[in-house]
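Just wondering, does anyone understand these C-alpha cells?
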Amino acid sequence: MRRTYFQNRLFLFFFSPLFLACFHNVAISAPSPYADIVIINGKVITADNDDPEQVTIAEAVAIRNSRIIDVGSNQEIQQRVANWTEVIDARGNTVIPGLIDTHNHIFETALGFDWVVKRIPEMLEISVRADSVDVMTRNMERAVAARASQIPQGQWIMVDIRPPAVAVETLGKTITRASLDAVAPNHPVFVSTRGGSVLNTLAIESVEGFYGNQLADAYWKVDRDLGWSGDYTDFGRCIKIDIINNTFDTLDKYIQGYFEVMQANAQIGVTTHKSHIQCEMGFSASNHLDRNDMMPIRMAYGHRWMQPFNPRIKETYRRIGDWTGHGSEFLWSIGSSTGGQDAGGVAWCTSMPSSDDVKQRELCPPPPDSVDIPTINDINTSKIKIRRVEHFTTLADLAAEGRITGVPGWHTAGDNALEMQFQYFRNVMSDERLRSLRIASDHCHLVRPEQIALAARLGHTFSCDITSTPTNVIKNDYGEEYLAWTTPLASMLKAGVNTVISEFGSQREVRSSPFEDGVVWLTGYTPDGEPWGVPEEVVPDRMTLLLMMTRYGAYPLWKENELGSIEAGKFADIVILNGDYMEGPNEELDKLTSIMTMISGDVVYEQPQLRGNTLRFNTESAQWEIDKSTPTEIWRWNGEPQLPPFLSGAGGLN
C-alpha cells in the first residue's frame, strides 16, 4: 500500500532524530528519589512475610504521595531526604503497619459511647442485669415504667437484658408484647438479649411502617401477637440507626458520633476495619463521610442492608450484581454478607451433646435440603434463621453461577453453623472456586479439628475475637472435653489457615491499647483471671500476633497488595508505638499504644512524645485537642474537623 505525501511527512517526523531524542528522554526519566516524609530511628517491624521468623526489622521508612517508597536503615533512608522532606524521629520506638480490625461494627456501636448518648439522649439503651427470671422481669418492668415517665409519648424505649442464660428464659414467657404494652402503652418498646427480643405493639407498627411491609412470619418464635422474636440484631441495629434517627432528626449527630468513634480507633492504631453493614443508614452515613473525604480510618464492608425486614430476599440479591471491590480507598465493598447463621452467647449451633434445655437455647438454621447434619434437629432449630439460610443459599448460588465474587462475613459461632456453610458451598461449587471467593467467617468459638483441615484447603479465613463466655458455657453445659474446640488458634495457624484477630478496637468501650486482647491471646487468661479454651491454643508469639492484626487481615479485605505491611508500593498506613513491641512480659503488652497514627501518609493522631504536637479527640470531654508546637504539613485535620450536613450533596438539599 502506497503512503500519501502527508503520510510520508508524518513518517519522517516520527522517526526523526529530534522526535526520537525527545521520546527517549521521556522514556528514561525517573521519578524523584526524594521523599515527602521519612521516619527514622525506629524499630520498624515491616510484617513483610507470612512467616513470623522471616519478618524484616528495619530502622526507617520513606513516603511519597500517600505510599511507601523505601524501607531500610537510617543511612539508606537519609539519602531520600530533601530540603522539603518532613522528618519524623521515632526515638527508638517500634513502628508497625496500621492495624486491621476485621470485625468491628462501629456504625452500630458508636451509639453506645457515653458522649454520643449524651448528645443523642433518644438513643439511650437501658441495661438490666439479674441472676434470676423473676428479678430480671421485675427490674426490666420498673426500668421501662421509669423511662416512660421521663420522656415524651412516642419516643422509643430500648432495654438490653443480660446475661443471656437468664434473659432468654424471660422472652415470650414473663416478657411479652402484652406485658410491655401494659407497662408503656404509649411508647415503642424493644427488649433484647443475645439470642432474642420482644417488641410491643407500637414498636412492631413502627418497624413495619418504616420499611413498608408486614414482618415475615419467620421473624416470630410463635406469632406476631406474642411479639417474641429470635432475632435481635436486625431489630436492635436498625431501630436505632434507621428509625430513631429519622424520627427525631438526630442523623447528623449520629454521623458525628460515628466519625468520632472511628477517630478513637485511629488513636490506638487501628487504620482499617471491616464490618457488614446491616441497616440502610449505616451505609448512608459511611458513604456520606467518604464522599466528603471525612473518613478517619478505612472501612471494608459486606453489604447486608437489603436483608432486614425484606420479604423478597432471593429476588433482591439476584438483582444486585457484583459489588466486590466497588468504592474508594477509604470505603469499599468486599461483597454481599450473609449475616448470622447462629448467634453468640448461649445461642450457638453446635454438635456438642447436652440436655434438651441447653439445646433449645441454640439458634440453629434449618439446613437446606442438600445438607445433612444429624445434630441439627427439631430441638435446636430456630425458624427465625429461615431467612438467613435463604440469604446465604441465594448468595452461594450466585457465586456458583459466577455472578458475584465475594461472600464475606458469615457469623458462625458454632461448629454446626460452620458445617452447614461448608457443606452447602461445596455442594454448589468446586473447592477451587471457593478459594477464589476468599471465604471468611466472623468468630471461631467452636471449630472441630476436621473443619480446620478443610478451612486450610478452601483458603478460608477465621476472624477470631476473645471472650471467656464460650469457655464458661462449655464447662457448665456441654463438658470440658470440648474445650479444645474453643478458638483453636494455634491449631489453625499450624494447619496453614489464615487466622486473624478482631474486635480489638474501640467498639463497645474506649480502649487505651489495641493489645488489651493480645495479652489474653498470649497468656490464655482474661484480665479477671478467667481462662479461655485450653493452654495449647494460645497465640505462640508476639510476631505472630502482630501479623494476625496486620498482614493476615489484608487478604480477606482484598487489599494484600496495598495494606497490612510496611513495604514499598503500599499505602503509608503506619503506627508509632510508645515503646518496644518485642520486649517485656506478655502481661504488660497492653501498656503499648499508638503515639502517632498515619494513614496514606497523613497524620490522623499525634501525641507530644515525638514532636511536642498534639492532634487528638478527647473521648472524655468530647473535644478536640490541637497543639502544633512543631510546624507540620502532614496532618489530615489541620483544625477541628467540620462535618457537612448529611443532606449536603444528596439531592442538593442543605
